[in-house]
């Protein structure tokens, strides 16, 4: 079931433990079962980034054991960075730096 964050529709939830059929650039958000923002990031290759993410243990510690991944597909890197920063600043994720 998609969710809205800052007016943008994020698709999901998906499993962060496996890749997608096709690769794409996006802003990604991980939510736990309490709907807390666990992490946010951006990438030009979701399959490369999510599978081997350096904060995956933090995700698990905060309730995203295998799912909770939402994506907003966007190819423009400048836009992705702006949206990531907006979400990170407003929601102060449990993992990563603000």
Architecture overview:
The structure is a single chain. The chain is of the alpha+beta class and 98 residues long. Helix content is 28%, strand content 29%. It has a 5-stranded antiparallel beta sheet with strand order 1-2-5-3-4, covered by helices on one side. The chain is globular and about 30 Å long.
Summarize the structure.
The chain has 98 residues and is of the alpha+beta class. The chain has helices spanning 46-51, 56-61, 77-91, and strands spanning 3-5, 8-14, 26-31, 37-43, 69-73.
Give the averaged pLDDT, no decimals: 95
Order of SSEs: EEEEHHEH
- Cα(first) to Cα(last) distance is 27 Å
Overall morphology: globular
* Unreliable parts: none
Write the layout of secondary structure elements.
Layout: E1 3-5, E2 8-14, E3 26-31, E4 37-43, H1 46-51, H2 56-61, E5 69-73, H3 77-91
Antiparallel strand pairs: 1-2, 2-5, 3-4, 3-5
Main traits of this protein?
alpha+beta, 98 residues
